[in-house]
Design brief:
This protein has 333 residues and is mainly beta. It has one helix and 26 strands. The strands form four sheets. Strands 13-14-15-16-17-23-24-26 form an eight-stranded antiparallel barrel. The longest helix has 33 residues, at 24-56.
Length: 333
């Protein structure tokens, strides 16, 4: 009925051979849809062809060397440290664990040195006794320059390695480096306070960081002549906006079942320090890491600009002592 007036609308309807009247706009839309599908099919064919072409470039792939049937399956342990960082004047000890799956016989396994910086001495082999699962490979380190990386890249000889087995936790290839890092100022001009015999003592100190490591220090800690060298540990229990302070050197561990802490101690000389602060001469300084059951008491936040060393007891040469007179360090973060 709609198309009976088609003659008055010549561009809207057309007469098909089967007697149906279909609008001209419908035919145009139909033709457009056909063209879209045709173009889509052409693009799909081209994409598939490109995929096959890309795969063809891998025809020269060569599989790795197969594992010998009688292989000892030797590997570098997965828990070996890859970065050996030390401070100025220190020498890193590079000792790698090398293990094997088949340990029935004694063996001397060749180590392939792919590359090594000048100054490093790489052993040519590692020895196993019969029945020995794990042996040590020690890399010698000569004179080092500060802030220079000494790199090495090693591999187990192919005749003894297994690149494919999942029986062990390790790899037949290992690389790492040694670095003698320098101390750099991390916090400048912090205020350190400590109350001795009722009198507050003050120092202006820097907190230094060893390279990009997790090692920090405060030189001449509270005038003792010793550096307080520490690591930043996990979140402090009872002070969750802070991290635990863990001593790294110049300390002697203390634990009486209630308090876990340490004495300030000269690790290099093996001596107890004695020094004068205000009108008192200190003979022993004991700092708490934690009071068992109550949380951590020595902690730091570089974001908040605050750290505290919780003194458990301070003994003086005159026979007196006092406790809980905390050492605080504050700065503008």
């Amino acid at each position: 009925e709609y198309c009976r007036g088609a003659q008055s609308r010549p561009n809207e309807c057309c007469d098909l051979s089967d007697g149906l009247l279909i609008s001209d706009s419908f035919i145009k839309g139909f033709r457009l849809e056909i063209m879209k599908k045709f173009i889509y099919q052409i693009l799909m064919v081209l994409a598939i062809g490109a995929g096959f072409t890309a795969c063809d470039s891998d025809d020269d792939y060569q599989p790795g060397a197969p594992t010998p049937a009688n292989s000892m399956q030797v590997y570098f342990d997965a828990d070996n440290t890859a970065d050996y960082v030390c401070g100025p004047g220190e020498q890193p000890e590079i000792e790698l664990k090398v293990s094997r799956v088949n340990d029935s016989e004694a063996a001397e396994v060749p180590i392939v040195c792919k590359s090594a910086s000048e100054g490093l001495t790489i052993p040519s082999s590692v020895k196993f006794e019969a029945g020995q699962k794990t042996a040590s490979l020690t890399i010698g380190v000569g004179e080092m320059e500060e802030d220079k990386k000494y790199s090495f890249d090693l591999a187990i000889d192919e005749a003894y390695a297994d690149h494919y087995s999942s029986q062990f936790k390790g790899t037949s290839h290992f690389s790492g480096y040694a670095l003698q890092a320098s101390w750099k100022t991390y916090v400048k001009d912090a205020d350190m306070t400590w109350t001795i015999n009722g009198n507050q003592q003050k120092w202006t100190v820097d907190i230094e960081r060893l390279g990009s490591t997790n090692r920090y220090r405060i030189k001449d800690f509270v005038g003792s002549g010793l550096d307080m060298v520490f690591l930043v540990g996990g979140v402090a229990s009872g002070a969750t906006s802070y991290n635990k302070i863990l001593p790294y050197t110049n300390y002697y561990s203390y634990n009486d079942g209630t308090v876990d802490g340490y004495y300030l101690y000269d690790s290099s000389k093996g001596e107890w320090p004695s020094w004068t602060v205000g009108d008192k001469t200190v003979s022993y300084l004991c700092i708490m890491n934690s009071y068992i059951g109550y949380g951590d008491y020595s902690y730091v936040s570089f974001k908040k600009g605050y750290c505290v060393f919780a003194t458990y007891s301070t003994a003086y040469t005159d026979g007196t002592s006092e406790g809980y007179n905390y050492i605080e360090v504050m700065w503008n973060p």
